[in-house]
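hey can u check if this looks right to u? its 664 residues, i copy pasted from the old doc so theres a chance i mangled smth
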Amino acid sequence: MRPWKWVGRMKPTKRLHLDLETYSACDLKTAGVYKYAEHETTRVLLAAYAIDDDPVEVLYADDDEAERELLEKLVVLGLTGNRVEKAAHNANFERIVLTGRLRARGLFDAPDGVMLPSGYWYDTMALAALAGYPRSLMGWTEAVGSAPKDCVGADLIRWFSVPNRKGVRRPMTGDRRTEDWIRYCRQDVEAMRDAIGKTIELCGGKDPLEGHERWVWRADQEINDVGIQVDTRLAKAAVAIDERIRGRAMGKARTLIELTGPDPRPAAAVKKGTPINPASVSQLMTWLKAQGVGMDDLRETSVDDALADPELPPHVRAVLEARAEAGGAASKKFAAMLARVSSDGRLRGGLMYGAAHTLRWGGRGLQMQNLPRAGFKTQTEELEGLKRILGLGDDTTALDLKKAVRPSLVGPFTVVDYSAIEARVLAWLAGEEWVLQAFRDGRDIYVETGKMMGGLDRFHGKVATLALGYGGGIGALRVMGGASLGDDDKLASLRDAWRASSQATVQWWSTLEDAWRNGGPAGKRIHVEPHGEDRAVVLPSGRRLWYRGCGVMHREDDYGRPVQRLSYIDPSRGRIETYGGRLTENVVQAVARDVLAAALVNLTGQGYKVVGHVHDEVLVEGDEDVEEIAEIMCNVGQLPGDASWAEGLPLAAAGYRCERYRKG
């Protein structure tokens, strides 16, 4: 076992509340903050700050020398030290931008790729997510009852922060817009500072971002800072090939549409001589309707369904196939890589802490959480496929590009993932002993499930395990297994057989729902705390999964009968319904997330170069010991090496090594 590299945090003596406003010709949304921070045009224009409860001060830079003085002032206030905690909303932005500007001004002496340490930063966006509130500053501050943000901020940011024909618009003394912008920036800090206290109060007086979760956020920042190496030559070649494939396919589709009429363009476009655009949804839908083909939309699944129809006219089939070929989903991944990759060839900032209500991670830019599953099946096929792409071969297809997305991420990697983690967590929480014993003995859970359902085969056991654990029924089975499972009577019998074999799990759905309504324990490992209209589900790790604005929704079911459904306010989706099965899914995924979070803390803390994670899979750069990493991932807890909260959870992990990222 490697030594623990992270030291404990010294208790800061002060907190510096901070908000920056910047300018750059680099598009932040497209490029991400890491590339934005290193761009030659990026400048800090405003910095609003307050030490503890002191009045908010605002510094502004009307030229480059003033920016240097602004940065020097922040350094004096404790920006780079460990005795002052820096609090910002989406602190990753302030931390990375300040790293770039301090380095450019010679005020941060560290090698390229090394960022300001995250250990003494406090991210109020993470706080909002942990507390069950919207991640945006406006949404969060309004939800907790702080002073509302001024809505004019977006207009001011467009005026000062993005390029215009005259170049940079610097803030100036006596300028009305500058005064409005300073007031807006000051108000952000005041609202953020006020919302911190209100959020902690609404969480029962306990700060959700203290303790272990601070370590998790720090690990997340380190992983984003390190980034992952990209084969930029491959990505550029893939984009070039895609443009050629797309042009060829669109030309073919355009010719067919022109030959089979009528012209799908608006009359004004026809008059102007604008060419037909097969990529236009409205034009193509108009043309399809004229061909007698009824389609509700042009989503990938809808197009696939249409192409599966043997009665589809050949010319319509050819147009839809051309559209599918020109879809460019894979090439968009390559374009996202190139847009966000830093000057050293590494893609940074691809992971988003607390993206889901359960606090599971999401993706940014490349969206590693949603990479194509298609890949080369052998190393020989991969080598030949990459050679063909790099050689810009005419025979390269869109499928070849799709297969090359993962291999464009360059290692070497040691890839380790958890085995059936949600099924393990569900059985552990519900007390489904036969499932736990099967996992302890290393038996195939899908085979065991089939046996418990009356001697069914592994396929049926797998479908039932994946579809029914969260209260699903006939619909879930149909989605998971399709027509191969039989008619509704057969699906109902499968559902009933699984529920008969998993009675502890079925009972736990109701137990959890009752606890959510009234408070109290849900089995041995989950406890629900009522807080007025809010609920806090206390997870085994000690983290609280917050549900805000809980209540009852009244509506009619499919038969027009009045029904009542539990509901809560989701931070991103508004008010939604819930019930025992859905709550079970939330809690299981939240616990699985805590398992992964503890693994990330332990791996990064012991010096492993974690460069990404996808669902329940961890990517470590380097030829590392697979078994050692798997052991660390299965030994989780609130503190390094402490597995007390996960006692009895039969975790298992396995992995492999590869030179380029691939599925095992």
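The two ends are 25 Å apart (CA to CA).
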